[in-house]
Amino acid sequence: MTSERNMTLERFRGILDIHGGDPARWPDEVRAEALQFSRTDPEGREALKSATSFDNMMDVWGVPEIPEDFTDRLMAGAGDNLLDLEGHRKKRAGRFGDLSRILVPTALAASLALGVFLGTTGLSATIFGGSQNITVVDLAYLSDTRTEFLP
Amino acid sequence: MPGPMDGKARMDRTGNHSASTPHMPDERTDETLLSGIAAGDMRALRALSDRHVGRIFALSYRMLGSADEADEVAQEALIRIWKNAGGWDPGRAAFTTWLHRVVTNLCLDRLRRRKDGSELEENLLPPVGPVAEGRIAGKELGAIVAAGIASLPDRQRAALVLFHYEEHPVGEIAEILETTEVSVESLLARARRSLRENLKADLAEGAFTAADADAASISGWKPVVLKGGA
Fold first, then answer.
1. Which among A55, A77, A89 is the nearest to B40, CB-wise?
2. B91 touches chain A (CB under 8 A)
């Protein structure tokens, strides 16, 4: 457990340098200790006062007002780029969309035809070594370890 | 994580304002809007822009010191959102963190380009006029602060702007700047110390009286040399 005796002026100034004079912005784990220090140590109190003033001084720097139609202006300004990107995106989606409309059914039909062909002609047994009794599981592992079926 | 209305609250605190909008506020979350944008929904882009544009502009303006450039950065950020919405992964970072990283990087790129000699930064900042009758009005003080922040190294400036003005916690700034929390703390400490020194020197050149301090709500600011108001 920490106490205010662990807080030194140097450490307190370090906290102020990093986090400023608003205790709400200080790290949770040091807030209570630092606040206690600022109440009990005269130099700590002055340091906090100075840091708070410094924060307030920074706040004097404002940002110009932005008009209500700022988003409209931004959208209009970015318009060509947005439309270009949108066109590109649609074009790309369209290209892959057309391709997938053709490729996916074709691949499925080809797989089905190949399966039926291999199953009905017994060609698979010829391909994989003639008379050996090949199961579906054997075929499934073929690519990994079961190479003994290969001619 | 800062919510959609945080920008407004923050702007109010610092005497500014958020991007007000004539449209009805969209209740959808950022992530839902991003899904809409990915599907090509311009209205979703508008809603997301309305929600965040105030903070984007404020961050860019404070980083660059130029409203025109802040405008351009906001526009570039909008295009980035439109472009990247499809690949958005909500598991990786909060949208606001990602957006602030994009904007900060756009600003840092511009600051880097300026250093290559294309532009003189001082020309972009509001001029600090002669101090009339030894007084510094709030507006002039604002310009002095702006110049002081502009003189900081880029990443120190980014850390300070993100922490003080945008009220991001240190952890989020580390994500935005793609560094560690310890590094962010170091950047913040160096930024404040340098700024304090810069302002002390700048303000010492003019006169800064207690009345000015009251006017600017900064009573208690000590390291200022008074010149007697002549």
1. A89
2. no
Burial class (CB in 10 A: 0-12, 13-18, 19+), B156: buried
Q: What is the pLDDT of residues A98-139, one digit of tens each?
A: 555 566 667 777 777 777 776 676 665 555 554 455 554 454
Contact A22, A55 (CB under 8 A): yes
Distance CA(B61)–CA(B150), nearest Å, equals 11
* pTM, rounded to two decimals: 0.69
Residue at B99: amino acid letter? L
Residue the block writes with tokens 């932005």? A66
Tell me, yes or no, if A71 comes closer than 8 A to chain B by beta carbon: yes
What DSSP letter does each residue of A106-144 carry, written as one string? Answer: HHHHHHHHHHHHHHHH-HHHHHTTTTS---HHHHHHTTT
Closest CA of chain B from A50, distance in Å: 6
Question: Which parts of chain A sit beneath pLDDT 70?
Answer: 1-5, 79-105, 118-119, 121-151
How far does CA B21 lie from the centroid of its chain? Answer: 20
